[in-house]
Write a structure and sequence with these properties.
With about 120 residues, the protein is mainly alpha-helical. Helix 1 runs antiparallel to helix 2 and helix 2 packs antiparallel against helix 3. The radius of gyration is 15 Å and the shape is elongated.
């Protein structure tokens, strides 16, 4: 997943940042006059991809939908894996309550909404 085109210097920025502090200073994260992105606390956008987490692929989603046809059983399973795992896997702001400060958050949640629809 960290090698996905989503995590490139020409799209949403690299998966682990571009310096030793894991600050992402490329891709759309570098939109602020070329000086890099700043969060609400004036810190950089950080990503620390890994931690042994991964994303649920198409086959996994199909199986989950088939295994849990009732929404009340599907929702808790969905919230922990397909929704929660990318937050943890990307790390940095995505793994905190500040996750909306990562531009990738909007793409992730658009996909979450798509899957719920």
């Amino acid at each position: 997943e960290s090698q996905s085109v989503v995590f490139s210097s020409t799209t949403f920025g690299t998966s682990t940042g571009t310096d030793s502090s894991n600050c992402v200073n490329d891709g759309v994260a570098n939109f602020r006059n070329g000086n890099g992105w700043r969060d609400s606390r004036n810190g950089c956008l950080r990503r620390e991809f890994g931690f042994g987490w991964g994303f649920t692929g198409q086959a996994g989603m199909v199986a989950m939908i088939q295994d849990f046809p009732a929404f009340e059983n599907f929702r808790p399973t969905f919230e922990s894996a397909p929704h929660g795992a990318p937050h943890v896997a990307v790390g940095g702001q995505m793994a905190t309550f500040y996750s909306p400060e990562d531009p990738l958050f909007m793409v992730h949640h658009a996909n979450v909404d798509r899957l719920y629809a």
